[in-house]
């Protein structure tokens, strides 16, 4: 009986070690499709932007296939966690955001704040100072990047206008905000216009 108990406990421990949780948020364009069971993303050209979330309960590596619009690609999802997969033609750039409640979201920006913001955005478009430690991400087309161990982290995708996330009790939400590189360049142009307008006064 004792031997059976040890064997059963070992099996439970082995099963726990082999379990896994992988969540992948796929950014696509037009009428592109995501087949979770077949692990295939079929990319087609078109207008608009969309996102699909897929998940796999396995500790093993998952290999996703991206087909269409040029060369096909095979994208590995090695470890457990939350991933962003870019199946669009444009680079996607994002980072961790300290989102506040709606009441405290509006903050007056000084000229120095604007200049610092422009410099930071320019560096992001050039892929500089990108690292997991900085919690910022530069995701090329047909690639995937792990952004967090927390599969329940909140992700705001390109072209969404959300500016705040409510707290749940005392827990600070883990939020990541992503933009297309085109959006960031447009933001840089707008901020630069604001600095020039202020100087003219």
Explained architecture:
The protein is of the alpha/beta class and 201 residues long. α2 (111-125) runs antiparallel to α3. It has three helices and twelve strands, in the order αββββββββαββββα. It has a domain at 21-100 and 129-180. The strands form three sheets. Strands 4-1-7-10 form a four-stranded mixed sheet, with no helix packed on it. A four-stranded mixed sheet has the order 2-3-5-6, with no helix packed on it. It has a four-stranded mixed sheet with strand order 9-8-12-11. The relative contact order is 0.17. β5 (62-67) and β6 (73-77) form a beta hairpin. The model is unreliable at 1-18 (pLDDT under 50). The protein starts with a helix and ends with a helix. The radius of gyration is 21 Å and the shape is globular.
């Amino acid at each position: 009986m004792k031997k059976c108990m040890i064997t059963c406990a070992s099996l439970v421990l082995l099963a726990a070690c082999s379990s896994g949780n992988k969540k992948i948020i796929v950014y696509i364009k037009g009428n592109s499709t995501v087949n979770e069971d077949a692990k295939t993303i079929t990319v087609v050209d078109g207008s608009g932007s969309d996102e699909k979330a897929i998940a796999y309960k396995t500790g093993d590596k998952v290999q996703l296939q991206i087909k269409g619009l040029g060369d096909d690609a095979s994208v590995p999802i090695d470890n457990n966690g939350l991933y962003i997969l870019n199946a669009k033609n444009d680079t996607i750039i994002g980072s961790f955001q300290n989102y506040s409640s709606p009441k405290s979201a509006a903050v007056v920006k000084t000229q120095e704040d604007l200049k610092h913001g422009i410099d930071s955005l320019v560096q992001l478009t050039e892929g500089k100072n990108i690292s997991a430690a900085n919690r910022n991400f530069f995701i090329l087309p047909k690639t995937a990047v792990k952004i967090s161990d927390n599969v329940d982290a909140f992700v705001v995708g390109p072209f969404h206008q959300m500016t705040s996330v409510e707290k749940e009790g005392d827990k600070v939400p883990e939020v990541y905000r992503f933009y297309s590189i085109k959006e960031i360049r447009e933001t840089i142009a707008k901020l630069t216009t604001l600095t020039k307008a202020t100087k003219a006064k």
